[in-house]
From TrEMBL:
UniProt-annotated binding residues for Zn(2+): H73, H77, D167
Domain of life: Bacteria
Transcription regulation recorded as keyword: no
Keyword terms, alphabetized: CBS domain, Cell membrane, Hydrolase, Membrane, Metal-binding, Metalloprotease, Protease, Repeat, Transmembrane, Transmembrane helix, Zinc
One GO BP annotation of this record: proteolysis
Listed PANTHER family: MEMBRANE-ASSOCIATED ZINC METALLOPROTEASE M50B, STAGE IV SPORULATION PROTEIN FB
Compartment(s) where it occurs, according to its Swiss-Prot or TrEMBL record: Cell membrane
Cofactor descriptive note: Binds 1 zinc ion per subunit.
Domain Peptidase M50: 62-135, 139-200
Record protein name field: Zinc metalloprotease
Active site: E74
């Protein structure tokens, strides 16, 4: 969902991506900011001659400032996560603000990572308010500073609503996890999140606020997805990855053309191919990695299908071991946007893949097995 986006620059190794929806959002933000600037300028009684620039220009400056403060908010999340030793895949700036893709499998740090963003927003609000107090007399600058301060304050407060997956909901889960465990904490936080989503949605409808309505849908979907993930983990727990994975892998040479390999995977109904070739010219052949059918499809879709299989290998494909617990493969799968997890044996060779299809199949079968067990239990009861 957040994977589409163009990387514009990187900060401390974190790719900062811009999502296509910003094309709509930035003009909307400039419109809202202009309206906000005008009402604050009116409230402050800014005289026409100290305005210096037309309200629209102040609005655009304000919108760009808000855009930067959203980035700062996300950076605060990500930098705390980095300090805690977690990996940050990317920060994507999109229509409803920003998203930090953090591998947050560490419940101990979740509350603090989630709180860092709103804290940054409050810090920016305080500094802008100080600058507003120092600015002499009502002017275009002081009205913009006050609007900037207030918006960051609202941004911080709004994000702290306990509406999982928003920051406040994550703070709630992080704090609850220590007392009642991760699983119960997720149940509580996602249920509260869904309730908040309904309230936000009602608020959005009653106030004709489209953005609020979007956020409500986003929160509801996010909470639902997290509940589904939790349910899947509970069902799969105790089962080794080896029983979940597909071992339908073919082989491909590093210098083979990707379309030719795609055709072979299709013909033999394979989920991916181990790529074999020399690491450097003249070296002996070895396993270089694995390319999944999903990868080939995605690259073709984007018009980025490479000429050789060697260039199609993804270095960021998550890896699990065949003897690992299957529930871990769900974390690995949802943490990235790779669409598959490579499964390794003891000798670190790729022996299989886990994709959403494998998880769905295993869950369907486990559901049927459990239903059968219940059925037999009732039918077989004596008396
Ligand atoms: Zn945040």
């Amino acid at each position: 969902m957040f994977s589409q986006g163009v990387t514009v620059f990187t900060i401390r190794g974190i790719p900062i991506k811009l999502h296509i929806s910003l094309l709509l959002f930035i003009p909307y933000l400039a419109f809202v900011a202009t309206t906000q600037f005008s009402s604050i300028a009116a409230a402050l009684g800014v005289p026409e001659e100290t305005m210096q620039l037309p309200p629209l220009v102040w609005g655009i400056i304000l919108a760009l400032g808000l855009f930067c403060s959203i980035l700062a908010h996300e950076l605060a999340h990500s930098l705390v996560a980095l300090r805690k030793g977690l990996r940050v895949r990317a920060i994507t700036l999109m229509m409803l603000g920003g998203v930090s893709q953090i591998e947050d499998d560490d419940p101990d740090h979740e509350a603090w990572i989630a709180f860092a963003g709103p804290l940054m927003s409050f810090g920016i609000a305080a500094m802008a308010y100080l600058a507003y107090l120092l600015a002499s007399g009502p002017s275009g600058v002081s009205a913009t500073l006050l609007a900037f301060s207030l918006t960051n304050l609202v941004l911080g407060v709004f994000n702290l609503l306990p509406a999982f997956p928003m920051d406040g909901g994550r703070v709630l889960r992080g704090l609850l996890s220590r007392r009642i465990g991760r699983e119960r904490a997720t149940q509580v936080a996602t249920s509260v999140g869904k309730g908040m989503a309904v309230l936000l949605g009602l608020g959005g409808i009653l106030s004709f606020n489209l953005i609020l309505l979007f956020i409500a849908v986003f929160v509801y979907m996010g909470a639902t997805a997290e509940q589904a993930r939790l349910g899947a983990q509970a069902i799969l727990r105790g089962m080794p990855v080896a029983r979940l994975m597909t071992d339908r892998l073919g082989e491909a040479r590093a210098d083979e053309s990707a379309p030719a390999v795609a055709e072979r995977l299709l013909r033999h109904n394979l989920a991916g191919a181990r790529v074999v070739g020399p690491l450097r010219p003249g070296d002996l052949d070895r396993e270089l990695g694995v390319v999944t059918a999903w990868d080939l499809g995605r690259m073709a879709e984007r018009g980025e299908l490479p000429l050789t299989m060697a260039a199609a290998i993804r270095s960021d494909l998550p890896r699990v071991h065949a003897r690992d617990d299957a529930s871990h493969s769900i974390d690995a799968l949802t943490a990235g946007d790779t669409g598959a997890v490579a499964v390794l044996d003891e000798t670190e060779h790729v022996v299989g893949l886990v994709t959403p299809a494998e998880i769905q199949r295993a869950m369907a079968l486990l559901g049927a097995v459990q239903a059968g067990a219940r059925h037999l239990g009732v039918a077989g009861r004596p008396g």
